[in-house]
Amino acid sequence: MESGKKRRLRRIFRDDNRTVIVPMDHGVTVGPVVGLTNMQCIVDKLLLGGVDAVVINRGIAKTVDTGNAGLIIHLSGVTDRCPDPNNKVQICSVDDAIRLGADAVSVHVNVGAKQEAQMLSTMGKVACECDDYGMPLLAMMYPRGPNIKNPHAVDAVAHAARLGAELGADIIKTNYTGDAESFKEVVSSCPVPVIIAGGPKVETSRDALEMVYGSLKAGGAGLSIGRNVFQHKDPTKMVKALSALVHQKASVEEALKILGESK
After folding, report:
1. Catalytic positions, please?
2. pTM of the model
């Protein structure tokens, strides 16, 4: 790997080659949801918790100070009001991200969607540009669309993860398969680091922490979790709890103590 990518990846991954990322690109898809009405406020809370990197859109990157956290600019988008909300299109360029001081860029591909071919074409072009500039590429690879019966099925998730790596991504974000044993199949068949998405808001903090713990046990490289962090009652403590799991190899019970939720 060329030195430019290595340097930038060190701003996202710690020395243990793991990372805690909080994506906050939701404003394009669903608008200013709870937790994301004041972007500087939530970023400040995440920084206090020790977040490693954040994912935001370029317009927000112009107005928010992300401190010492890695900056990942999201290049894909579509609103949930669109007739085909699974069709993610490119809304920002690698050049734009470089001008904004990004440490990485991210693209979203819905594997199995009607417009999958166009999304793959876009990702392929972005991957080539990233290689030209030494810019790391995070690929959000989700089994999603009419041909996907179960978006958490190990065969579908493994295919999506491997697809992203095959097209040139440096980091893969995808769904957790529900248990460590099956997720190990995803990680072992993907030649680049795999981190898990958080998905919809879970019922309890324990649910989120157990999901992360299982993914790490399977060999995952961390997480990129949004709603279950920025909509948590205490985002700062949630980041600290997640960081304890990821970087300190804490147990779920130890992480719950950080949240003040242990019994």
Report:
1. 25, 142, 173
2. 0.97
